[in-house]
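Study both lines:
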Amino acid sequence: MKTSLIIIAAALAVVAGVSAASATSRPTLAPAAKGGCTFATLPRATPAGQQSLYGHISSLTRKGNHYVLRFDPAWLLSGLTASRASLEDTGSADVPNDTYTRDETHKLLTLVVRANAQVTVLTHATCSTRTTVAKLAKSTTPRRRFWIQVRIDTVRAIDEQYHP
């Protein structure tokens, strides 16, 4: 009886720890080996009821107490999938850095972004830093790629993806 209670208590502790770890929606910012740089593990874990989308920000404009994001979703592919998609699209299976972005339609999605949404951008290659939506709105360029975390029509987080 005591043994089964101990096992149940241990199992509950493990479940509580896993639940607490997965409930956080922040990207993991780990220190890099040199220079005090940190990098985000992306895409960030997405809680139930939300989704992560990859693509380009076409525009990010303020409207009242929130922002309006125009987003061009794409597929970030790797491995065999990337090679085959590249071969179909370009005639070459060469995939530099083992990733290939397929952007089929260039049709934009319109999403709401809260002014206090979490934002992580790259500062030097893979070095990440947290910033604000307002600062991102002033600095967005079409070549940059992002992961956005969305619930229904509202962006909860925006994270820049490194791409050489």
In short: The longest strand covers residues 109-124. The chain has three helices and nine strands. The mean pLDDT is 81. Strands lie at 28-31, 38-41, 51-63, 66-78, 99-102, 109-124, 127-131, 145-151, 154-161.
